[in-house]
Amino acid sequence: MEQVLSQEEIDALIKGLSDGEVETPDTEEAEEQVAAKAAEVSSFDFVAYTKGKKERLPALDFIYDRFCKSFRAALSMLIEKEIEVNLAPLQYVEYDDIIKKLPLPTNMNVVATEGVKGFFIVIFDAKLIFAVLETIFGSTTISPAKIEGREFTKIEFNVIKKVIDIVSAEMEKAWNPVIDITCTYTRSEINPKYITMVSSEETVSLAEFSIEIGETTSWMRIVMPYGVLETIKGNLLSTPAREDLEMRERWYDKLRSRVYDVPLEVRAILARKKLTLEEFVQIKQDSIVIMDKYVNDPVDMEIDHRVKFKGKAGVYKGNKAVRVDAFVP
Predict the structure, then answer these.
(1) In CATH, what number is assigned to the domain containing residue 291?
(2) What is the CA angle 70-124-73, rounded to 5?
(3) Co-location of 70 and 188 in the same domain
(4) Beta strand pairing status for 118-124 and 107-114?
(5) Domain region containing 305
(6) Is the omega angle on the peptide bond into residue 105 within 30 degrees of 0, that is, cis?
(7) pLDDT value for 55
(8) For residue 317, what pLDDT is reported?
(9) What pLDDT, on a 0 to 100 scale, did the predictor assign at position 41?
C-alpha cells in the first residue's frame, strides 16, 4: 500500500520543523557532502576511449623491426660510419599528442604509398640532420647546431632528401613479406599545422627510433594513420615467421629451377589441310595436296598444341630452323 501522510500529520511535521523539534541537516555540512561526492566523479570521454582502443597489428611490429635493421645498415653506408639504431615499442596514439610536443621549426616529410593507398609521415630530429651533414663532410667531432629561430638551408634539405630516399627504399623492403608497396617522397614541412591530411583527433601508429652517431643521440619518428592500416588489416593481424619466409624463398628458388628443367616439345607447323575421308583415301603416291598456306606465310610454332610464336622458316648453320618473329599471347 502507498504510504501517504494525512493532513494532520503534514501539519504536525511543518510545526515540528518550525519549532526546532525535528532536526534538519546543517546547510554548510550538506554542501560539503555534495561537493565531496562530486569530487569523486570524473568525466569519461567515450569518443576518445573508442579512438584509443585500436586493435594492435602484430605484423606492423615485424615490419618495423626489419626496417630498423636495414635502415641502420643503409644509413651507416651513407655516412661511412657505424651507427646505432634502436626501435621503441610501437604506440597507437592521437596525432595531436605527437605534434604538440614537437619543437618549432621541425622537419616533417610526407611519403605517399602505392600498394597501400595512403601515406606516412617521417619526422627527423634536427640533431640527426646536422650529425649526418657534418659526418658526410668529414667532421671528426659533431657539434650541436642551433636550429631554434631559423629554417633549414638548401644544403640541409638535400641531406634530408637523401635520408628520406633511404627510408623509402628500406620501408619497401621491410613491407615486402607482408604486402608490396611503393614509397614516393612528396614534400617537407617545418610546421606541423601545414600537414592537414591527418586530423588532430585521429589515431595513428607511432614508431620511434633512437639513433646514435658518435656521441650524438637523436631520433626519427614514422607516423602512419590507423585508417590507412585498416584497409589492409587482414594482412597485419598475423606475424610472418622469419623461418617461414626463408623456407618459402628456398622453396621458390628450388621450384623455379625444377620448372626450368621441364622438357617442352616445340613443333613448327609449316601448313595444315582439312580433308574429307573420301579425299584422304584417294591420296596415292605422287598425289599433290594443296595446302592452306603460301611459302612466304609465317610459320606457327606450337607448345603443348597451342600456338605461342610465329616465325620464318629457313636454314641456320646447315640446320633447318625457324626464326621467331612474334609472340602469340
Answers:
(1) 2.30.330.10
(2) 15
(3) yes
(4) antiparallel
(5) 264-327
(6) yes
(7) 74
(8) 86
(9) 58
pTM for the model stands at: 0.58
Res 52: pLDDT: 45
Residue type, 292: D
Same domain, 311 and 231: no
- Rg over CA atoms, the chain: 38
Beta bridge partners of 219: 210
d(CA 54, CA 205): 10
Half-sphere exposure of 313 (CA within 13 A, CB side): 15
Distance CA 63, CA 239 (A): 9
Torsion over CA: 175, 179, 185, 189 (sign): negative
Residue 8 lies in a domain: no
Residues 133, 272 share a domain: no
Among 273, 292, 294, CA closest to 283: 273
226 and 268 fall within a common domain: no
Q: CA–CA distance from 152 to each of 11, 129, 188 (Å)?
A: 84, 10, 11
Identify the DSSP state of 131.
H
Q: CB-side exposure of 3: number of CA atoms within 13 Å?
A: 1
- State residue 263's pLDDT score: 86
50 — pLDDT class (breaks 50, 70, 90): very low
Q: Which three cell numbers stand for residue 241?
A: 615467421
Using CA atoms, how far apart are residues 81 and 178, in angstroms rounded to an integer? Answer: 31
Predicted confidence band of residue 250 (pLDDT cuts 50, 70, 90) = confident
Of the candidates 54, 8, 11, 62, which has an alpha carbon nearest to the alpha carbon of residue 203? 54
- How high is the pLDDT of residue 126? 85
The H or E element that residue 170 is part of is helix 154-175
Q: Within this chain, do residues 95 and 197 fall inside the same structural domain, yes or no? A: yes
